[in-house]
Write a structure and sequence with these properties.
- Belongs to the binding-protein-dependent transport system permease family. CysTW subfamily.
- It is a multi-pass membrane protein.
- It holds the Pfam family BPD_transp_1.
- This is ABC transporter permease.
- It is a single chain.
- It contains 11 helices and no strands.
- The two termini are 35 Å apart.
- By secondary structure, it is mostly helical.
């Protein structure tokens, strides 16, 4: 007979959720506050969201963030996928060593990553700007794409590919019609995660950004130093919503891919 969970576990879960999400909920609530005094609730309004889209500096920062996120996502998705496909063919010891190197950008603190890239760009005489942010974001996004795609490849096996080759298909045909459809959920999920990380990144961008390449997180940081306003709360709320949607979409794609795989494995 299955025993019920202890009530303290449920209380612990509720307290943990409150601890994590209460600060985020406060930002969302006060983004609708009808006063600039963020500590006092004076009524509901959407004026702060309207003023955001008429703010030239916010739109410029948004454009920079979207440009960086789109370019870095495309490049890191291609490179991360190719890395996962190529390392898959290495020996177990070789894969272990390369996995450690590719996991390193995920593990090391962002401040060390940002500082090391700043030193590299300064030594190479590259002026900080939008291009340096893109390169920096590719550097850490590539690892996340690699992790997701390589996990998908590990679960796929080689039976279908070997069967296609035995039936006379070329390596390109096997990749196009067998491998790519199988790993496409992992590629899409990795791209969504890379886009989300790029859009939300502050620490690394802060080190390598130039004066004319301010992204949304950097803009928010600059405004917060003058005091937290409902307009900043509204901007943070929009970023939270976009990030949550992208993460949920990535999780849905991965789960859907696993469901399709199980369905194909069922006997007819």
């Amino acid at each position: 007979m299955k025993k019920a969970n202890h009530p303290l576990l449920g209380i612990h879960y509720v307290l943990m959720m409150v601890f994590i999400y209460l600060p985020i909920l406060m930002i969302v609530i006060f983004s609708f506050n009808n006063t600039r005094l963020s500590g006092n609730w004076e009524g509901f309004t959407l004026d702060w969201y309207v003023s955001l889209f008429s703010n030239r500096y916010v739109m410029e920062a948004l454009g920079n963030s979207l440009t960086v996120a789109l370019v870095s996502t495309v490049v890191s998705t291609v490179l991360g996928t190719l890395a996962a496909l190529s390392i898959r063919k290495w020996s177990r010891k070789g894969r272990a060593g390369l996995n450690g190197l590719l996991y390193l950008p995920v593990i090391i603190p962002d401040i060390i990553m940002g500082l090391s890239l700043l030193v590299l760009f300064s030594q190479m005489k590259i002026d900080p700007g939008k291009m340096t942010i893109i390169i920096a974001h590719i550097t850490f996004s590539l690892s996340y794409v690699y992790v997701v795609v390589s996990a998908r490849l590990a679960n796929m096996g080689r039976q279908l590919e070997e069967a296609a080759l035995d039936l006379g298909a070329s390596r390109w045909q096997t990749f196009r019609h067998v491998t790519l459809p199988q790993i496409s959920p992992g590629i899409i999920a990795g791209a969504l995660i890379a886009f989300t990380l790029s859009l939300d990144d502050f620490m690394i961008s802060f080190f390598v950004a130039g004066p004319s390449s301010t992204t949304l997180p950097i803009y928010i940081y600059g405004q917060v130093k003058r005091g937290v306003s409902p307009e900043i709360n509204a901007l943070c709320t929009l970023l939270i919503i976009v990030s949550v949607i992208l993460i949920l979409l990535a999780q849905y794609v991965l789960n859907r891919g696993r469901g399709q795989k199980k369905h194909k494995m069922l006997p007819m």
